[in-house]
Design a protein that fits this description.
This protein is α/β, with parallel strands linked by helices. About 45% of the residues lie in helices and about 10% in strands. The protein contains 5 helices and 3 strands; from the N terminus they run ααβαβαβα. Strands 1-2-3 form a 3-stranded parallel sheet, sandwiched between helices. α3 packs parallel to α4.
């Protein structure tokens, strides 16, 4: 996935931004306890504001888990990389996502859509639970 403005250039013409949101929303509606997850590729020319707006759109339909990773051009026949996003920017987006209420955000240059999401989510939840227990003591 990418931000709304770039969808027509990045994705197959048969798919679009609203369709992706509708699919995620429908999954959550049918099974409210289902954890929904999506991913954004960064480095295609999106602005920080567009990424934050996309995150807000995802939270408005209760998406739980978000991964953000650097787009890397697989072949010369694919889109060129517009920008290599800095680790600091990835960290900024991770923090923003957490503040928006995602249950888990994996954000970094080497993060991919399947980026050990389950493993990292469990690790995150265990750390959160331990921290909360320490706060009670």
């Amino acid at each position: 996935e990418t931000v709304e403005r770039l969808q027509p250039f990045v994705r197959d013409a048969r798919a679009n931004y609203q369709q992706s949101l509708n699919t995620l929303q429908h999954a959550k509606k049918v099974v409210p306890s289902l954890y929904t997850k999506t991913s954004l590729m960064l480095g295609l020319g999106e602005t920080d504001d567009e990424v934050i707006q996309t995150m807000k759109d995802l939270r408005s339909i209760n998406v739980d888990v978000l991964t953000l990773g650097q787009y890397l051009r697989p072949t010369e026949n694919h889109l060129s990389v517009v920008e290599y996003v800095t680790p600091e920017t990835f960290d900024y987006f991770r923090k923003a996502g957490e503040e928006l209420g995602f249950k888990y955000v994996a954000s970094g240059p080497m993060v991919r859509s399947s980026y050990k999401a389950g493993e990292f989510y469990l690790q995150h939840m265990i750390q959160k639970e331990r921290s909360e227990q320490e706060d009670l003591q």
